[in-house]
Amino acid sequence: VGQSFENLWYDTDLVTTLDGSDVELRLYSNVGFTDFSVGSTPVYSSTGPLLVSSAFLTSNEVTYPATIAAGDLLLCQVVTRNLYMDSGSTMLGTGWTAFAGNTYGNNTTRVHQSLYWRIADGTEGGGTIIVRTFGNNQESMALIAIHRFTSVNGFAGTPVENIAVEVGMTDTVTVGRTITPSALNQLAVCTIGLGENFPTFGSMTGATGATWVQRFHTGSSLESIGMQTANVSSGAAITGGSKTFGETADYWSALTFCI
Fold this sequence. Notes:
This protein is mostly beta strands. Helix content is 0%, strand content 51%. The chain has no helices and 21 strands. It has strands at residues 11-16, 22-27, 34-38, 43-47, 51-53, 57-63, 73-81, 83-84, 97-104, 111-119, 128-135, 141-150, 161-170, 172-174, 178-179, 187-194, 213-220, 223-231, 238-239, 242-244, 250-258. The strands form six sheets. Strands 4, 5, 7, 9, 10 and 12 form a six-stranded antiparallel sheet that branches. The chain has a five-stranded antiparallel sheet with strand order 13-21-16-18-17, with no helix packed on it. A three-stranded antiparallel sheet has the order 1-2-3, with no helix packed on it. A hairpin with a 6-residue loop joins strand 9 (97-104) and strand 10 (111-119). The model is unreliable at 1-17, 21-38 and 85-89 (pLDDT under 50).
């Protein structure tokens, strides 16, 4: 910086930063400067305050992360226990798109997880939305959180793909599917719902192709909610990953996808 470079040969290299994004360095000959550009790998930024609801029929006021810019990707994660979450029973309003969900278990202990995405217009920061849930008994509970992802180039179109749904009734959450991004600079995301209260959980281990990193996890009373990411910007597939939560077998849900 501050000086001219002459008679340099062209070179390109990729450097991965601590936040998982790629930085591309380029040197051009006889142009008198160095070109420095930043890759567009999506990055997890923050999660808004957790909403805990235990009412039979309720309109839950969920808060966005405090800072949101236009073009950010917002992900609303709804994990419920003993709640009827069939199509249409969870409503987030205009601008949100449902893209993954499942129910596993029986009527007294079943766990349901639903995911919704929205591309931010920049006005959401610190505001709230209403998420409606309907419970079937006094132990009904919902944990709801909104996650923010950023990208140098912003998000457009449909930002999620390669959705895999997995469930189990063991003390180990296992991602058995292979997630293969369709392009470079993508981020694998795994959202987790547990039918027990585990305030701590930890990153999944044993994956090939990338490393899972826990970004968010908390428990409340009868269930837990969490999210992990893995940088797959090299374009290689990520396979597997598991975490034992150290309790008698209970229902769990894992939804994995790429952004």
